[in-house]
Specification:
Number of strands: 4
CATH superfamily: Glutaredoxin
Structural class: alpha+beta
CATH class: Alpha Beta
CATH architecture: 3-Layer(aba) Sandwich
Largest sheet: 4 strands, mixed
Length: 153
């Protein structure tokens, strides 16, 4: 009986490790449209910033909702992904943050993952914050509020 229980536990362990490995390998950094220097200097489109790492469990389970955000808002907002998977991706993300004028935001949230922040293009203040939610309506509400805020005279 004990051998059978151990065999079942070993099988479950192998299965869980396999699932975790598969999730890790498929949780690559989302690709977003490049932001030109002119767009980076503009104050008309808010930034929607995903703080990502390949090893982040929240990033793994919210991958689908980020794809919906990209589909719904490409062209309306500046989509940005800062990747903290390793030292190399963190350095590249830091350089991109500086280029976009988001250096202070990057410094404050460096290393945080599983978060999508909506950042005002002019002030660079965080206007919305979603962590770990798989409910697209939460993302839509935060992003739409920022878009409405940018339409005021």
């Amino acid at each position: 009986m004990m051998k059978q229980t151990l065999a079942i536990l070993a099988g479950l362990t192998v299965l869980l490790v396999g699932i975790g490995t598969a999730m890790y390998l498929t949780n690559t950094t989302p690709q977003v449209p490049a932001i030109s220097s002119a767009e980076a200097g503009s104050t008309t489109k808010p930034y929607v910033v995903k703080l990502h790492a390949q090893w982040c469990p929240i990033c793994m389970v919210t991958k689908g909702v980020w794809a919906k955000v990209q589909d719904a808002y490409t062209g309306q907002v500046n989509l940005v992904v800062f990747d903290f998977t390793n030292a190399e991706t963190t350095r590249a993300s830091q350089a991109e943050a500086r280029r976009l004028g988001l250096g202070a935001f990057f410094d404050e949230y460096s290393g945080a993952t599983g978060i999508v922040a909506v950042v005002d293009a002019k002030s660079k203040d965080v206007k919305g914050w979603i962590q770990g939610s798989r409910d697209f309506a939460e993302y839509r509400a935060a992003i739409d509020a920022a878009l409405l805020g940018n339409q005021r005279p």
